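Our preliminary data section would be incomplete without showing what the modeling component actually yields. Below, a chain of 156 amino acids is followed by its predicted structure, encoded as tokens that our downstream tools consume directly.
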Amino acid sequence: MSSAAVAEEIRCILIPLDRQALLLPNAAVAEIVDFHRLVSLQGLPDWVAGVTDWRQRRLPVVRFERLLGEPEARSQRRRIVVCHALDPQAKRPFIGLVSSAIPRLLRVHAGLLEGRPLAEDWRELPLHAALTVDGREALIPDLPALAQRLSEVDLG
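Predicted structure:
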């Protein structure tokens, strides 16, 4: 494989939600863990599922479907995808995202990505783009913007 072909290939993780999927570069994901009981705190917005302990840290766990205004999937195969906040100023350097099933690794060729504008009601959300990858609609979350939103939430 030529170095130009390798440069255009991006290793990604496709995180399934109920109706959508999130797409992140592999390097943005720290770990994928089993979904387990979360601590729910008083007054959390409905898009924050709760917090859990992860590697001696308090990890906020986000239901991205709720941010999108959709019902949350309640699959037995749910996972928590632990992501880097990608913001050196973030109060919490890691964010957990609920996945409706086991995420999968993809090698995405940049030239094959088909982007489109975000839906009107999604433009204020922490999203970079909407695109089609592997025949499925996927959203690219804006992790620093999500970390900023979480910094405004009292997680105890």
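The first strand starts at residue 9 and ends at 16. The chain has one domain: 3-151. Preliminary results of this kind motivate Aim 1 of the renewal.
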